[in-house]
Design a protein that fits this description.
Helix content is 38%, strand content 21%. It has an 11-stranded mixed β-sheet, with helices on both faces. The model is unreliable at 1-43, 45-121 and 188-201 (pLDDT under 50).
Length: 680
């Protein structure tokens, strides 16, 4: 934990231990790491219920609890339990003072403690916890009168107090508490499907806190989790299924243009990196080096692959002899490592997955054409599959890839207005071929260096999809990219209806699957229909099909679309005849795909501002906009703008607005416009 962290504990009433010759101290820790109080309630209640049955029962390793930053520290003490005596609880709340934790996802495994030993919790302990929280509420109310706390702080503390009192009530009168809980669950189910879906599953509203919302969506939708090493990420099955969809489309498109897949080693001799001067200068801060192997110091350090231009050229030198060997078009699907200091899941991590293409050509024109062709491939994917509108353009010299003559990019606007570089393609010229002496004999028998391109996209695209389309309820996946395009939810109120409804749901799924639509039937009877609706909305499934007894009787179903919440997005009495149903679902999926693209494009266009002076540029950036204006500035001018505004030149768009233009820094005539924006 950092120096700004603190450990506070809830008081526990003393219980005289029974005599024992060899006392053994036991304790238990609950970690408060953000989120809602319900998780704490569930964790405590679970442990309380289990306590009478087994002394070895464990409290779940992590309980989430929202703690306001201005809340006074909770009073506390650690109380042990001796053999033969009723054990007493120790509940610890770990608080990062001055910083409200973004979510449980925002903290690594190393920062969360687990239950250190077994314990039981009794009614007295729960009452003590409620009493301590009551003191906190009173302190906050006094602080509110003095202006040292806010009403939100008080509201949060009161909410937590009510949760703790509910636990006490549940312990003292389990039957009444259970009945009340069941009634509450039924009420929530009845209200499900409205705008409360994201709140019920623990997703912070996007409009309230964009960064926290992003992490919540990744956690709650089970897209990824943190790895044990700082800055690493574990991609979970649902997230990896999205990456597989990206791979399938890209791989097929690459192969249409003659590209072949290969694989190159992950460990690269350090001397390779140093052969191209600008390349080593650009990547040195991000390199991870292996210096020992087999218990011995290595004669030469090995670089864990940050990108593969160097080792690819080493092999190209051996494979290319004459013009007959050209063009050579290679792609590899691999992982790379870059030692990032500030990481963000999917957007910037120490290790990530990507594809990197590498080509060798006989002429400069061929290399340039391939670089442009591949950035257009990425544009087509972004717009037709990911429904993510992008601006295609050329990077400035400052922002270009280290070792490239020219870098092309697709830039997407995220939901918070920041730019995301979603894919790049580089014309490498002869920079690497001269460094590695990658030559060929031309038709005249003369030795010449090859011209090259390289291009790539990564799992960053997943982060882009989340931030482009997500809403307060969670994820919204474009149908062309969604692992599950349609979820079928059977709804049966009575046992006698279950078989008929289940058969109808499975028949619908079979019909759609045979038509090539990705379908899942959620027939898990442990969860209510309302809970399922909210869950699948949060996970971004584009279309939901509902079928109940009345639908079965009418040989119909209900179709709901993710982009239109509530009744507006529902269509009733849709016939389940295969021809009718398939046409309906395919049309709905196409409509949702188009709607996502149109919404994202409208948002982007509304947040691009044309500027004619430096003051206008600063004002636009301060307002969270993209600033578009003429540019004839120097590299130093560009760096100064970044230092003063935090914005960089995202690109010089291929599609240039009509002139004339003047430089936003100097006022001199400018041949083209660029776009400045803050970015990820």
């Amino acid at each position: 934990r950092t120096a700004e962290s603190a450990v506070t504990r809830l008081p526990t009433p003393s219980v005289a231990p029974a005599p024992s010759p060899t006392p053994s101290v036991r304790s238990m820790t609950v970690v408060a790491v953000g989120g809602d109080t319900m998780s704490l309630r569930l964790a405590l209640t679970s442990a309380l219920r289990r306590a009478p049955r087994a002394a070895s029962a464990r409290l779940p390793s992590t309980a989430r609890m929202m703690i306001p930053t201005t809340t006074a520290p909770l009073a506390a003490s650690t109380v042990g339990s001796h053999r033969g005596a009723r054990p007493r609880p120790v509940v610890a709340a770990h608080v990062r003072h001055g910083v409200r934790p973004a979510s449980s996802f925002a903290l690594s495994a190393a920062e969360t403690a687990t239950a250190s030993s077994t314990a039981e919790i009794d009614v007295d302990a729960a009452k003590a916890a409620a009493a301590a929280q009551g003191e906190t509420v009173r302190s906050l109310k006094d602080a509110l009168k003095k202006g040292d706390a806010t009403k939100d702080d008080v509201d949060v503390a009161v909410k937590k107090l009510l949760e703790l009192k509910a636990i006490v009530e549940q312990l003292e009168n389990p039957a009444a508490a259970a009945a009340a809980e069941d009634a509450g669950a039924k009420a929530k189910d009845a209200a499900a499907g409205k705008d409360s879906a994201g709140k019920d599953v623990g997703v912070t509203p996007k409009s309230q806190d964009f960064s926290r919302w992003y992490l919540d969506v990744i956690r709650e939708c089970e897209l990824a989790d943190y790895g044990p090493a700082r800055g690493t990420m574990v991609i979970r099955p649902y997230g990896y299924a999205i990456w597989e969809a990206i791979q399938r489309w890209m791989d097929a498109d690459f192969k249409k243009s003659g590209v072949q897949n290969a694989y190159f080693p992950q460990l690269i001799p350090y001397s390779f990196i140093t052969k191209e001067a600008s390349h080593v200068e650009g990547f040195s801060p991000e390199l991870a080096l292996v210096t020992r192997g087999g218990g011995k110091e290595l004669e030469e350090p090995l670089v864990v692959r940050p990108t593969s231009e160097t080792i690819v050229n080493h092999m190209f030198t051996q494979w290319i002899q004459s013009y007959r060997d050209l063009p050579l078009l290679i792609n590899q699907w691999a992982n790379v490592h870059r030692w990032e200091m500030r990481t963000r899941p999917f957007i910037r991590t120490l290790e990530f997955l990507w594809q990197e293409g590498h080509t060798a050509h006989a002429t400069a024109e061929e290399a340039e054409a391939r670089a442009v062709q591949m950035i257009d491939c990425y544009r087509r994917f972004a717009e037709t599959v990911a429904a993510m509108p992008v601006i295609v353009g050329r990077k400035s010299r400052v922002e270009s890839f280290a070792g490239a003559d020219c870098t092309y990019t697709i830039e997407a606007m995220m939901g918070d207005g920041k730019a995301l570089q979603a894919g790049t393609s580089h014309n490498l010229g002869q920079n690497f071929s001269k460094a590695f002496d990658t030559t060929f004999l031309d038709e005249k028998g003369e030795t010449r260096h090859v011209y090259q391109s390289s291009w790539g996209v990564s799992t960053r695209l997943i982060g882009g999809v989340i931030m482009t389309h997500g809403d307060d309820a969670g994820l919204r996946l474009p149908p062309a990219l969604a692992p599950i395009q349609v979820v079928v939810v059977p709804i049966a109120q009575k046992n006698k209806d279950k078989a008929a409804v289940a058969d109808a749901a499975n028949a619908i799924a079979t019909t759609l699957t045979n038509a090539g639509i990705r379908v899942k039937v959620d027939d898990d009877d442990r969860n209510s229909p309302g809970w399922k609706f909210a869950q699948w909305e949060m996970k971004g499934v584009p279309v939901r099909v509902e079928v109940g007894p009345k639908d079965v009787a009418k040989n119909a179903c209900v179709v709901a679309r993710r982009d239109r919440p509530g009744k507006e997005g529902k269509e009733f009495d849709v016939a389940v005849d295969p021809n009718v149903l398939v046409a309906k679902i395919e049309g709905t999926l196409a409509d949702v795909q188009g709607a996502y693209l149109a919404q994202a494009r409208a948002f982007r266009d509304a947040n691009i501002v044309d500027v004619n002076s430096y003051d206008e540029l600063v004002a636009a950036i301060d307002a969270g906009k993209w600033a578009r204006g003429g540019w004839e500035g120097s590299d130093e001018d560009e760096k100064r703008v970044k230092e003063e505004t935090g914005a960089t030149i995202r690109c010089f768009p291929f599609e240039q607005p009509a002139g004339p233009h003047k430089c936003i820094v100097s006022g001199a005539p400018a041949k083209e416009v660029c776009i400045f924006a803050k970015s990820y």
